[in-house]
Design goal:
The complex is a heterotrimer of chains A (245), B (69) and C (355). Chain A is α/β, with parallel strands linked by helices. Chain A has one domain: Thiamin diphosphate (ThDP)-binding fold, Pyr/PP domains (Rossmann fold). Helices cover 36% and strands 17% of the residues of chain A. In chain A, strand 5, helix 7 and strand 6 form a beta-alpha-beta unit. In chain A, helix 1 packs across helix 7. The longest helix of chain A has 19 residues. Chain A is globular and about 50 Å long. By secondary structure, chain B is largely without helices or strands. Chain B has one domain: 2-Layer Sandwich (Alpha-Beta Plaits), CATH 3.30.70. Chain B contains two helices and two strands. Chain B starts with 14 loop residues before the first helix and ends in a 13-residue tail after the last helix. Chain C has 355 residues and is an alpha/beta fold. Helix content of chain C is 40%, strand content 20%. Chain C is built from eleven helices and 15 strands. A seven-stranded mixed beta sheet of chain C has the order 3-2-4-5-7-6-13, with helices on both faces. A five-stranded mixed beta sheet of chain C has the order 10-12-11-14-15, with helices on both faces. Classes of the chains: A alpha/beta (245), B little secondary structure (69), C alpha/beta (355). Strand 2 of chain A pairs parallel with strand 9 of chain C.
Chain lengths: 245, 69, 355
């Protein structure tokens, strides 16, 4: 019986049709229900997902833009027995929050960062993100991202995997049922790593933003497949030692 | 048994239609409170209960209740 | 038991004695001894010390710790406090208790590492964006650090807001003998709002620590509730010291270490036959306006504000005095400390205007 997880409130998501935030919220609810949502504290960020605290029924601390990993550090140090996670977009994690995510990862903070990468700034209307692809047109790269002006996109999972404090880092996508099931397994593993106290865990989720890509929700699935995945390959970039499932 | 859609949550994104192997989902002509044309099931008896629609739905896939026989 | 203590260390020890068990900060002169002391001391009491990667990160760790119900502190100096302003605005908006120590140094920009009091405006008038206030306390001796830091944590929890304690490069670095207050059992107030996770809680409603009120009507309501709090604080919490003011004609107004210089000037002026006195605010916000009422300074004819800045607190003094007497200002800034002689010269000048 696949039905709406209890952890999701009855509120209707405000997201655009075809936005992958909704899929990720559901996966998060399903996975947390397998652990214990009462033993969990979420740290929300600033972006389209700013109202996530209205959608998942657990305690939330809303962080300033980019600061969620630092806020999560404060929460986890006061409540180390809790599962603490952040939920952030590209601007939040890879632009303004680069300092905070790198150092939370380096310190091996026992938190899980969920990074929703849709190659654009959604909430503010479609501007360039650090993860915007070369040639991609956005409202602040109307002629397409190019090397001279904006340089190259940022690869967060690859960069962070280098740090010893990172116990688990993986990149997934949500553009097919198979990929969604894999993403769920990865998410569960990330929380397992936190529960076992192994260190920092990160899951980068390639997601669609049909509205700001200017495509339909179904076309967006192809966009992820053909444009994003070649530049942001899927896979587990850092794994904990054998035995964590 | 089969698939059930919570019409008021549907945003007509079409992801479920795209993924249904039995091709029994289509956009209806109704209008829900959000202003979208929700998806409807054309022939529920042909539902294979694969659960793909539930997986891909971004609006709390929760719209989709798939009962496995 | 009297111990010789450095001001920075006193801030740290005072926090621990007040029940603070979480500290997140970043090194910056002239306060680095504060985090260094806590790195060892918090370990001794089973607390958490973490050196953050920046002041931005530090204040956000404070936010998280406070949100989860911890008694938490950070410290910095001007440039770092500037970086913390976003976080302080968020703490205020989310109604979180926390203590922030600013050991002020010469500014603006990189400035220098010598003492100033030029972050008064930043502390009292704003700093961060939005309609909010923080309580601001100003100790002037190492002994007073203990009382005011304990008070800071109590006020922060009582009113659910950030409290700033202003020191300066002198107070941070000076070593003075201090009678350590006895270690006492700190009763932590209950925090029925803290996002601690639902487990072990009877109240299973989810708690959200947030400063986003997307509907303007609701934000205004939230702010009016905060303003009511501030009104209560203004009515009940101002503290000041008055020294030889009963018959004073020339009244100096100073805070922090500058007030110690001012006190010496008052005594010297009295030797010269000048009726001088001193008002020393301990709370900079709420400003002790009542100190300047006619019934409290019945003979004051000239008020001289002395600060280590280009003139910041003087504006609040003028507001409090409300035109009743002349208010003038003397200050040194950029890290320079006023000398007793130059302040005395000003007092003598003023006394000549008076007879």
């Amino acid at each position: 019986m696949d039905k709406r997880p209890k952890l999701l409130t009855e509120n209707k998501f405000h997201y655009c049709p075809g936005c992958h935030h909704g899929i990720m919220h559901r996966l998060l609810a399903e996975v947390l229900e397998e652990f214990n949502p009462e033993n969990t504290i979420g740290v929300s960020s600033v972006g389209c997902s700013v109202f996530i605290y209205d959608y998942l029924d657990l305690d939330w601390v809303a962080a300033a833009h980019g600061r969620a990993p630092a806020v999560a550090t404060g929460v986890k140090r006061v409540k180390p027995e809790r599962l603490v996670f952040t939920y952030q977009g590209d601007g939040d994690l890879a632009a303004i929050g680069t300092g905070e995510i790198v150092h939370a990862a380096a310190r091996g903070e026992k938190i899980t960062a969920i990074f929703i990468n849709n190659a654009v700034y959604g909430m503010t209307g479609g501007q360039m993100a650090p993860t915007t692809l070369m040639g991609q047109k956005t409202t602040t790269t109307p002629f397409g991202r190019n090397f001279e002006n904006q340089g190259y996109p940022v690869k967060m999972v690859e960069m962070l995997s280098v740090l010893d404090g990172v116990a688990y880092a993986a990149r997934v996508a949500l553009n097919s049922p198979k990929r969604i099931l894999e993403a769920k397994k990865v998410l569960k593993k990330a929380f397992m790593v936190q529960k076992e106290g192994l260190g920092f865990s990160l899951i980068e989720v390639l997601s669609a933003c049909p509205t700001n890509w200017g495509v339909s929700p179904v076309e967006a699935l192809k966009w992820v497949e053909e444009k994003m995945i070649p530049y942001y390959p899927l896979g587990e970039y850092k794994k904990p030692p054998e035995g964590v499932e | 048994m089969g698939v059930k859609i919570s019409k008021e949550y549907c945003k007509s994104c079409g992801l479920c239609i795209n993924v249904c192997p039995a091709k029994i989902l289509k956009i209806s002509r109704e209008i829900n409170l959000l202003g979208y044309n929700p998806v409807e099931v054309t022939s529920p008896e042909d539902c294979r209960e694969c659960g793909f629609c539930y997986l891909v739905c971004p609006d709390a896939a929760l719209l989709v209740e798939v009962t496995r026989r | 038991m009297k111990v010789l203590m450095k001001g920075n260390e006193a801030f740290a020890e005072a926090a621990v004695r007040a029940g603070c068990r979480y500290f997140f900060g970043y090194p910056i002169t002239p306060q680095s001894e504060l985090p260094e002391y806590l790195a060892k001391r918090l370990f001794e009491v089973g607390g958490v010390f973490l050196q953050a990667e920046s002041e931005v990160a530090a204040i956000n760790m404070v936010y998280g710790a406070a949100a989860a119900g911890g008694r938490v502190m950070t410290s910095s100096s001007g440039p770092g406090i500037s970086l913390m302003q976003e976080g302080i605005s968020y703490l205020a908006g989310a109604e979180l208790p926390a203590v922030i120590i600013n050991i002020m140094r010469g500014g603006p920009g990189l400035g220098n590492i010598a003492p100033t009091q030029a972050d008064y405006f930043q502390a009292v008038k704003g700093g961060g964006h939005g309609d909010y206030q923080v309580i601001v306390l100003a100790p002037s001796t190492v002994t007073e650090i203990f009382t005011l830091v304990e008070k800071a944590f109590a006020l922060a929890d009582k009113y659910r807001m950030p409290v700033m304690v202003l020191g300066d490069g002198i107070l941070g670095q000076v070593m003075e003998p201090v009678e350590l207050p006895p270690l006492k059992e700190i009763t932590m107030p209950p925090k029925p709002w803290a996002a601690t996770g639902k487990l072990e809680r009877e109240d299973k409603n989810r708690r959200i620590i947030n400063s986003l009120y997307i509907v303007p009507e609701e934000n205004e309501k939230h702010l009016n509730h905060q303003f009511a709090k501030y009104q209560q604080i203004i009515a009940t919490e101002p503290v000041y010291e008055s020294f030889m003011t009963d018959d004073a004609q020339i009244v100096i107004v100073s805070f922090g270490t500058t007030a110690r210089i001012a006190k010496s000037v008052v005594l010297k002026a009295r030797e010269l036959g000048i009726k001088a006195g001193l008002i020393r605010p301990l709370t900079l916000w709420p400003f002790p306006s009542k100190a300047f009422l006619e019934e409290n300074l019945p003979f004051a004819q000239r008020i001289l504000t002395v600060e280590m800045s280009g003139g910041q607190m003087v504006e609040d003094v003028k507001l409090a005095v409300n035109g009743r007497t002349g208010v003038s200002f003397f200050g040194r800034t950029g890290g320079m400390v006023p000398e007793m002689g130059e302040v005395l010269t000003k007092v003598i000048e003023l006394s000549r205007e008076v007879k």
